[in-house]
Amino acid sequence: MKLDIIYNKSSESMSDIPDRSIDLVVTSPPYNIGTIYGNKWEDRKIVGSKDIKYDDAMTEEAYRAMLGNVFSESKRVLKDEGQMWVNIKNRYLNDQVVPPFWIMDYFGDMFLKNIIIWNFDWGGTTNIRFCSRYEHVFFFTKHKKNYTFNLEDVKIPALNYRPERYKSQLKNPSDVWKMSIVSGNSPERTGHPAQYPEELVERILKTGTNPGDVVLDPFIGSGTTAVAAKKLRRHYIGYDTNAGYLKTAETRIRNIGNPA
Ligand SMILES: C[S@@+](CC[C@H](N)C(=O)[O-])C[C@H]1O[C@@H](n2cnc3c(N)ncnc32)[C@H](O)[C@@H]1O
Using CA atoms, how far apart are residues 239 and 228, in angstroms rounded to an integer? Predict the structure, then answer.
């Protein structure tokens, strides 16, 4: 199996990867919200397109079938003590919220350990309902009890620390994670319209893997998972159907050089 590689093809078949060889899968699938991203806006009007187009509008049937293929391949390649993290958000169809709990139907043979609420301060705005300021991250394990969970590596400062009461100034970060999205002026920003932040993947990889482990992202986009993995000395394998995103990912990975 080749390591530290991104394949420019669909992850519906990942025949490059043998059974039970991946420690952790982390991914953010296409949301199929029927939007063509990559438009250039001025004064709230589309005035052109940016370089990288992203067509996220499949029929619901084709979308669910595609995800089913990718998730069953992901489970095939996961080790018996492996784990899978899926970031997905609410969609709005027919003017109402469709929460992403349907995703759990694909993972009835795994153990759901957490539904993380990723909360952020910034995003699209509306005056017909409250603005959405969170996404979900589902955390599944293949084995009920045996899985890597390095809690000590991701503890955060306890704001209400009282030495007489608590042993440590650090605490479990809980299942609500406040982390910025990759906004237009973020230094991490690439041309990819649906990039997740390195910080999010870093917490997942520190928790669920050890240095030298192998991480898979079947929808790797601009390569955020690979960047986080390389920085933390984990190996990565990625897939994306879009050749433009692959180039972006390769540039990002090259630019971080070799971690000390
Ligand atoms: C939500 S984006 C992932 C963004 C990524 N997390 C990042 O930080 O850049 C989903 C990606 O899935 C890719 N994609 C869609 N269908 C695919 C398929 N069948 N196989 C592999 N990649 C696919 C799209 O090109 C897109 O880059």
Answer: 16
